[in-house]
């Protein structure tokens, strides 16, 4: 039995379809992240799960029970809001215990729950303050505490970290991950931040235009994207897309990349990754997807055993980030980004030999943008 | 997580809550229903009712013998109605215009970092808290030629000074303007002041860096930003003007004769004291028409700007 | 216009002087009627006829106030305006309370529990703010008759509530629109219902708008004359109607000092409210009208 199951949910606002036949299911204790650009329907889906917005059609089940037409209170879920939505007139203690009070939990139990949650989140010293007297990070903790005080079947997090500054966001991200590991709760988490998605999720649903494009583990979504959108959305800097022509036939496909003012680059497609589909595409335009880390600087000492194909290009910009260096190089019609080690000594304008790990490259149909291989 | 507190509860409460869910969906409508009903009956129903009365020959008591638009035709040939309507145009235009100028001027002057701003603002605004009846009674006393301002100025040695508008049929309507401006211009000042405070400081700073002088900044940069305020103020003031009834009753009593009548007093006199319910209703409907003529363009522009914004 | 550097040239100083002069003159203009009213109300009658408007009283007396309160003639009766003052209170207090409560609930339902047509409902009710009341006078008189409320305080309370809720609903709606809806969503998830969310979450943050609504309704209803004169009898008249009758009763000598004292009595409650809470009143009123 799934902790949460969504079956063919559609949602219309007037003539606009914001959710188009969305289905998914997660198990108890799983951390699901809904990710996508703004307007993709992820927040609407979350509100539909919470019962804050009725769906047009479809079914929602929580712990096997159909809740599609139940009120939010009847669904037994807790939610952390982007704006935190702390009750301004109540103290932190009042905020945390309000949900228990509404469910007629006896006072002693309420007090115990507040203490437990305050301990967990290290906000015991803030309990008598009003939300207006708290910093952004403290408010965020209280908002989580309010959700954790109850033990609902599902927790919903609606972009809970987006109002925090960068440093605090990273800290809280780690903390949420720890909490989840410790408490084993079922969490649905909405974000537009793909790093949050990658670091926190057991399971990621990438959404666009009201549809789930791909539902899978972070590894699957990152390394095995179903289309150009998912491939481009996950990862930072994002994947390079290079127009190429597919050549060859049985036993050896090649990708020809035409770069102005350069010799054509021909990259062999690994035999192990051939698909039957490729045969029909010979001679056609395809899109080659290479992540920045699929490039590596050529190390002369390793030349003999290193895998992958060698290419050479003139560096246009070198951006050291500290941990590594991002290089911009012309390849095909545009430029690509390559991530190399921090020790690579290269300046703009110099030519550099790079290795491409074709074993992890992906190939897309240039028209449908679907994955080919 | 320690499952100790609430796990067993939902099952027990489930049956009750489902119906509660239904109730929850209907409660907002139930709460609004009485107000909507009241509004439909007492506002829209009454408007229709008055319209029907205006089509009858009701005199002392309402009757429902329809006579078409005869009452409106009578109104059009009624000298007193024309005086009242003309007075409303004169009164309304002067009242709205002077209030806007005085209010805007005071607001701009008050906006120059005046130390006693709070106290001055309170003084300018307090008349708004008074009843028009009180305003009328006070100004009747001030404008009384025998003992008021005229007498005071004469006692200072200006023997020829004459200020007898209150008893002069040609001028009585202007006394209404004076009293009404006194009462409402502070309110317009407050509107403008709030508008001025809402303007982004950096716009003014940018204009100063561009080398504009202060009056020019106000005229070219600030006032155009206050268009919505002007609009709101015109709307509110016109509304006050059309409804003006108590001020006339208390200050001039519509007199001398009916020289300072307004449609509001005309309507009351005919409907309640002169047993001309049909005619009074017709005049009320024309007043409503006047309000709608101002209101509809206002709401239209409001809605349009909301869609854009 | 703060934080702007200005040169303190002689011309600028002259300008500041003129600025203050204009502002003070304006203040005198607004103050004059109140001052005259107050001065006149404590002068004996002979000083009034002999002296001028602004002459200070030689022998101040509270007799005009006492007479205005307890003996002055308002039409046929000579019992002063005191009784009518209490009539006004008896009408104003329930009317203000009821219309504010109804307006608050309406505003809450219209903003936080939107449903299909809720905007239409709001527009429908909003129109009540704009109608000239002359258009409802005759049907209202007849309806009050049917309800058995003619010339009663209850009838006047009903009238003021009916035509006040358009305003109070507008105030509360505009206020609650700005309160984050997520607060209500959070409370729904916490298991609170319609009334409990209102009582525990919305009401505690509504103090500013309650003040505005109460002050607005209080001044509107206290200062009302039209409904008072149309729908009341001798013993249920509000103080504004009594004041008008007192001033227009022409028996014997015109006692201007008593007139002014009565006007002061009628004006005092709203003046006091304005002085005590005027800051919030202005803030709320202007916020409402600027926003539309």
UniProtKB/TrEMBL annotation, chain A:
GO terms for molecular function: ABC-type transporter activity; ATP binding; ATP hydrolysis activity. It comes from the Bacteria. Residues 4-234 form the ABC transporter domain. InterPro entries: AAA+_ATPase (IPR003593), ABC_transporter-like_ATP-bd (IPR003439), ABC_transporter-like_CS (IPR017871), ABC_transpr_MalK-like (IPR015855), ABC_transpr_MalK/UgpC-like (IPR047641), Mo/tungstate-bd_C_term_dom (IPR008995), NA-bd_OB-fold (IPR012340), OB_MalK-like (IPR040582). Keywords: ATP-binding, Nucleotide-binding, Transport. Pfam families: ABC_tran, OB_MalK, TOBE. One of its GO terms (cellular component) is ATP-binding cassette (ABC) transporter complex, substrate-binding subunit-containing. GO terms for biological process: carbohydrate transport. This is Sugar ABC transporter ATP-binding protein. It comes from Halomonas heilongjiangensis.
TrEMBL record, chain C:
The chain crosses the membrane at residues 21-42, 84-108, 120-142, 154-176, 197-218, 260-282. Residues 85-277 form the ABC transmembrane type-1 domain. It is a multi-pass membrane protein. It comes from the Bacteria. Keywords: Membrane, Transmembrane, Transmembrane helix, Transport. Its main location: membrane. It is found in: Cell membrane. GO terms for cellular component: plasma membrane. CDD domains: TM_PBP2. Pfam families: BPD_transp_1 (PF00528). GO terms for biological process: transmembrane transport. Belongs to the binding-protein-dependent transport system permease family. This is Sugar ABC transporter permease.
């Amino acid at each position: 039995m799934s902790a949460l199951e969504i079956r063919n949910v559609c949602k219309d606002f007037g003539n606009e379809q914001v959710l188009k036949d969305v289905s998914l299911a997660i198990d108890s204790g799983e951390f699901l992240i809904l990710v996508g650009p703004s307007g993709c329907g992820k927040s609407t889906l979350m509100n539909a799960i919470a019962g804050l917005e009725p769906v047009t059609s479809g079914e929602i089940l929580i712990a096997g029970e159909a809740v599609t037409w139940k009120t939010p209170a009847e669904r037994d879920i807790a939610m952390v809001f982007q704006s935190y939505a702390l009750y301004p007139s109540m103290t932190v203690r009042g905020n945390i215990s309000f949900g228990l009070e509404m469910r007629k939990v006896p006072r002693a139990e309420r007090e115990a729950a507040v203490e437990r949650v305050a301990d967990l989140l290290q906000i015991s010293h803030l309990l008598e303050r009003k939300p207006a007297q708290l910093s952004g990070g403290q408010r965020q903790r209280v908002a989580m505490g309010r959700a954790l005080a109850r033990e609902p079947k599902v927790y919903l997090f609606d972009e809970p970290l987006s109002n925090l500054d960068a440093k605090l966001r990273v800290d809280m991200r780690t903390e949420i991950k720890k909490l989840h590991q410790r408490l084993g709760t079922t969490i649905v988490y909405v974000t537009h931040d793909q790093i949050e998605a990658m670091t926190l999720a057991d399971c990621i649903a990438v959404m666009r235009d009201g549809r789930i494009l791909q539902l899978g583990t972070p590894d699957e979504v990152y390394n095995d994207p179903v289309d150009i959108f998912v491939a481009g959305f996950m990862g930072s800097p994002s994947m390079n897309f290079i127009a190429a022509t597919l050549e060859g036939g049985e036993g050896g496909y090649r990708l020809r990349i035409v770069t102005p003012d350069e010799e054509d680059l021909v990259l062999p497609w690994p035999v192990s990754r051939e698909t039957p589909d490729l045969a029909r595409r010979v001679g056609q335009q395809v899109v080659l997807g290479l992540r920045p880390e699929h490039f590596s600087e050529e190390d002369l000492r390793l030349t003999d055993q290193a895998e992958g194909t060698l290419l050479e290009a003139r560096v246009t910009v070198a951006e050291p980030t500290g941990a590594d260096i991002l290089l911009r190089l012309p390849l095909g019609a545009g430029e690509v980004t390559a991530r190399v080690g921090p020790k690579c000594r290269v300046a703009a304008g110099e030519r550099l030999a790079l290795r491409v790990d074709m074993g992890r490259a992906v190939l897309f149909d240039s028209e449908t943008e679907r994955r080919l291989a | 997580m320690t499952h100790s507190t609430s796990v067993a509860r939902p099952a027990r409460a489930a049956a009750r809550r489902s119906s509660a869910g239904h109730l929850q969906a209907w409660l907002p409508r139930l709460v609004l229903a009485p107000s909507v009903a009241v509004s439909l009956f007492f506002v829209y129903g009454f408007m229709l009712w008055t319209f029907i009365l205006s089509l009858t020959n009701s005199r002392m008591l309402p009757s429902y013998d329809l006579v078409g638009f005869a009452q409106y035709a009578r109104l059009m040939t009624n000298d007193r109605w024309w005086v009242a309507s003309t007075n409303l145009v004169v009164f309304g235009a002067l009242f709205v215009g002077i209030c806007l100028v005085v209010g805007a001027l005071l607001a701009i002057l008050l906006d120059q970092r005046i130390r006693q701003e709070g106290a001055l603002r309170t003084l300018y605004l307090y008349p708004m808290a008074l009843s028009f009846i009180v305003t009328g009674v006070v100004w009747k006393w001030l404008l009384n030629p025998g003992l008021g301002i005229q007498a005071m100025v004469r006692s200072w040695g200006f023997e020829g000074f004459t200020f007898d508008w209150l008893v002069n049929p040609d001028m009585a309507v202007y006394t209404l303007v004076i009293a009404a401006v006194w009462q409402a211009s502070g309110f317009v000042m407050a509107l403008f002041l709030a508008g001025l405070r809402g303007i982004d400081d950096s716009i003014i700073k940018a204009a100063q860096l561009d080398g504009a002088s202060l009056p020019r900044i106000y005229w070219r940069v600030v006032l155009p930003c206050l268009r919505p305020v002007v609009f709101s103020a015109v709307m509110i003031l016109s509304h006050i003007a059309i409804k003006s009834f108590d001020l006339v009753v208390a200050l001039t009593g519509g007199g001398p004769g009916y020289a300072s009548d307004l449609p509001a007093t005309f309507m009351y006199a005919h409907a309640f004291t002169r047993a001309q319910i049909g005619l009074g209703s017709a005049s009320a409907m024309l007043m409503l028409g006047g309000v709608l003529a101002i209101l509809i363009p206002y709401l239209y522009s409001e809605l349009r700007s909301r869609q854009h914004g | 216009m703060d934080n702007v550097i200005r040169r303190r040239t002689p011309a600028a100083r002259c300008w500041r002087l003129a600025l203050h002069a204009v502002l003070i003159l304006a203040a005198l203009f607004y103050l004059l009627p109140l001052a005259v009213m107050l001065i006149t109300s404590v002068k004996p009658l002979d000083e009034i006829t002999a002296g001028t408007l602004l002459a200070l009283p030689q022998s101040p007396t509270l007799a005009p106030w006492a007479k205005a309160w307890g003996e002055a003639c308002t039409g046929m009766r000579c019992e002063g305006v005191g009784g009518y003052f209490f009539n006004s209170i008896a009408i104003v207090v329930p009317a203000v309370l009821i219309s504010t409560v109804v307006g608050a609930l309406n505003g809450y339902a219209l903003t936080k529990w939107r449903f299909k047509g809720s905007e239409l409902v709001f527009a429908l009710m909003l129109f009540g703010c704009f109608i000239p009341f002359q258009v409802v006078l005759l049907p209202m008189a007849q309806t009050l008759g049917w309800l058995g409320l003619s010339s009663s305080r209850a009838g006047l309370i009903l009238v003021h509530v009916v035509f006040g809720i358009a305003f109070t609903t507008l105030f509360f709606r505009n206020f609650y629109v700005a309160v984050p809806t997520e607060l209500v969503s959070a409370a729904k998830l916490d298991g609170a219902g319609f009334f409990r969310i209102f009582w525990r979450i919305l009401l505690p943050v509504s103090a500013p708008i309650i003040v505005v609504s109460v002050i607005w309704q209080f001044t509107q209803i206290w200062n009302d004359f039209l409904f008072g004169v149309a729908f009341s009898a001798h013993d249920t008249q509000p103080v504004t109607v009594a004041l008008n009758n007192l001033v227009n009763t022409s028996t014997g000598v015109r006692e201007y000092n008593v007139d002014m004292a009565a006007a002061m009595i009628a004006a005092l409650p709203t003046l006091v409210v304005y002085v005590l809470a005027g800051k919030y009143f202005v803030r709320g009123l202007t916020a409402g009208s600027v926003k539309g």
